[in-house]
């Protein structure tokens, strides 16, 4: 998998911290759990051993996933963006009908958190906004149906 991962500098730093934790303290904890389970004897019926092996597989998979993301990362804070056009890293203010305006940062999928105002450029709303201009009226096909809104501002 060699897809580009779009992250803010903060998001990349969080992934690096998670990777360091998984490679250090988490691996050590799992090694201790495995040693303790092995010392208990018969591994075929040892639930602690099975659980530790499952956790170890998950951690190793997550390590590979993070390493792949960081190997293919583009920091969106550094991307050049055309003024007035929604792109990855843009902060967009939109308004649906007479509702209060809402502000979102357009980010990569790995960093999306709608409750924190970060939406993926691949999400229904993010993809509807992507490459649109200030003042455009946009329709997004969401799981709850179509929503129409206007782009108030782009930073």
From TrEMBL:
Q: Name one GO molecular function term.
A: DNA binding
PROSITE patterns hit by this protein: GREAB_1 (PS00829), GREAB_2 (PS00830)
Residue ranges constituting the Transcription elongation factor GreA/GreB N-terminal domain according to the UniProt record? 6-75
* SUPFAM superfamilies the record matches: FKBP-like, GreA transcript cleavage protein, N-terminal domain
Q: Which residues form the Transcription elongation factor GreA/GreB C-terminal domain?
A: 83-155
Q: Name one GO biological process term.
A: DNA-templated transcription elongation
- Alphabetically list the UniProt keywords: DNA-binding, Elongation factor, Protein biosynthesis, Transcription, Transcription regulation
Name the Pfam families on file.
Answer: GreA_GreB, GreA_GreB_N
The family database entries (InterPro entries) matched by this protein are listed as: GreA/GreB_C_sf, TF_GreA/GreB_CS, Tscrpt_elong_fac_GreA, Tscrpt_elong_fac_GreA/B, Tscrpt_elong_fac_GreA/B_C, Tscrpt_elong_fac_GreA/B_fam, Tscrpt_elong_fac_GreA/B_N, Tscrpt_elong_fac_GreA/B_N_sf
Q: HAMAP family, per this entry?
A: GreA_GreB
Per the record, the similarity remark reads:
Belongs to the GreA/GreB family.
Q: What is the protein's known function?
A: Necessary for efficient RNA polymerase transcription elongation past template-encoded arresting sites. The arresting sites in DNA have the property of trapping a certain fraction of elongating RNA polymerases that pass through, resulting in locked ternary complexes. Cleavage of the nascent transcript by cleavage factors such as GreA or GreB allows the resumption of elongation from the new 3'terminus. GreA releases sequences of 2 to 3 nucleotides.
Put simply, this protein is called: Transcription elongation factor GreA
Q: Which organism is it from?
A: Flexilinea flocculi
Q: Which gene encodes it?
A: greA
């Amino acid at each position: 998998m060699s897809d580009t991962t779009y992250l803010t500098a903060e998001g990349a730093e969080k992934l690096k911290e998670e990777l360091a934790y998984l490679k250090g303290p988490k691996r050590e904890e799992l090694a201790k759990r495995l040693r303790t389970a092995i010392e208990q004897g018969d591994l075929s019926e040892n639930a602690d051993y099975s659980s530790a092996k499952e956790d170890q597989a998950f951690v190793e998979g997550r390590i590979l996933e993070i390493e792949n993301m960081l190997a293919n990362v583009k920091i969106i804070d550094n991307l050049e963006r055309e003024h007035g056009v929604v792109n990855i890293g843009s902060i967009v203010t939109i308004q649906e009908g007479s509702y209060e305006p809402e502000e979102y940062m357009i980010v990569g999928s790995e960093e999306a958190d709608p409750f924190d105002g970060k939406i993926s450029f691949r999400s229904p709303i993010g993809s509807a906004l992507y490459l649109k201009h200030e003042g455009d009226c946009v329709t997004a096909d969401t799981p709850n149906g179509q929503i129409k809104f206007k782009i108030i501002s782009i930073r």
